[in-house]
From TrEMBL:
<dbReference type="InterPro" id="IPR019557">
    <property type="entry name" value="AminoTfrase-like_pln_mobile"/>
</dbReference>
<dbReference type="Pfam" id="PF10536">
    <property type="entry name" value="PMD"/>
</dbReference>
<protein>
    <recommendedName>
        <fullName>Aminotransferase-like plant mobile domain-containing protein</fullName>
    </recommendedName>
</protein>
<dbReference type="InterPro" id="IPR044824">
    <property type="entry name" value="MAIN-like"/>
</dbReference>
<dbReference type="GO" id="GO:0010073">
    <property type="term" value="P:meristem maintenance"/>
</dbReference>
<feature type="domain" description="Aminotransferase-like plant mobile">
    <location>
        <begin position="19"/>
        <end position="201"/>
    </location>
</feature>
C-alpha cells in the first residue's frame, strides 16, 4: 500500500486519525441541524446555551494539520487534465467530469505498490495517497465518491506541499460551505463536514 511510504509525524494527520475518518459515515440529520443554527455573518452556531464555533485549534486537535506556512490558493484550471494526470500519476482515468475523477478509480489504480518499484513510482503512489486524503477526506464532496483534480498540482513537490497551511484551508473551506448550505436554494452539502461531525461527537 502507498500508506507504508508515508512518514507521519505529529504535524500531520496520523494513520489512526485517517482510519477514524474513513470509518465514519456522515450523519446528515446532525449536519442539517447544525446548518440551521449556523450564522454566516459571525461564523458561529447559535445554540440554546449560547454561541460557539469550530476553530483552528479544533482542526489541529482533530486532524493534526499544520497551520504555519503559505496560504493554499486555488490552482489555475489546466486546459487538459489528462496531461496533468499523466505527468503526476502516470495514469489517466477513463472519465474526467468537470475536473473530477472517481475515488474508486484512484483506490483501484493505486491499491498496491510492487516490491521492485523505482523511486518515480513510489513518488507517484505517495502523491496519489496524499491526493486521496486531501480530495477525498479533507475537502470531500457530499457523497465522497469524486475528487477534484485541482488539488493534484499542489503535490508536484512534497516539500512545498508540506509548507502549506492546510489547517486554515480546511477551516476556511468548511466555513464557506456552511455559509453556502444556509442558502435556501442550496440542495447538496459539500466539503469536509466530517470534520464538523467529529468535532461535535468528540
Amino acid at each position: 500500500m502507498a500508506r507504508s511510504l508515508i512518514r507521519l509525524n505529529n504535524k500531520h494527520i496520523s494513520v489512526n486519525q485517517l482510519q477514524i475518518a474513513e470509518g465514519v459515515k456522515l450523519d446528515l440529520k446532525l449536519i442539517s441541524a447544525l446548518v440551521e443554527r449556523w450564522r454566516p455573518k459571525t461564523h458561529t452556531f447559535h445554540l440554546l446555551r449560547g454561541k460557539c464555533t469550530i476553530s483552528l485549534k479544533d482542526v489541529h486537535l482533530q486532524l493534526g494539520l499544520p497551520v504555519d506556512g503559505s496560504v493554499v490558493t486555488k490552482s489555475i484550471q489546466p486546459g487538459d487534465w489528462e496531461v496533468v494526470c499523466l505527468d503526476l500519476l502516470s495514469a489517466v482515468p477513463e472519465m474526467i467530469y468537470k475536473g473530477q475523477i472517481k475515488m474508486a478509480w484512484m483506490r483501484k489504480t493505486f491499491s498496491e505498490l510492487v516490491k521492485d518499484s523505482i523511486e518515480v513510482q513510489r513518488e507517484q503512489y505517495a502523491r496519489a495517497y496524499f491526493f486521496q486524503i486531501i480530495g477525498g477526506i479533507l475537502m470531500s464532496a457530499k457523497l465522497q465518491n469524486l475528487v477534484h483534480l485541482r488539488w493534484l498540482p499542489k503535490l508536484v513537490d512534497f516539500r512545498e506541499a508540506d509548507e502549506l497551511s492546510w489547517r486554515s484551508t480546511v477551516l476556511a473551506t468548511l466555513y464557506r460551505e456552511m455559509c453556502r448550505a444556509t442558502q435556501p436554494v442550496k440542495i447538496k452539502i459539500d466539503s469536509f463536514f466530517l470534520l464538523l461531525q467529529l468535532w461535535v461527537q468528540f
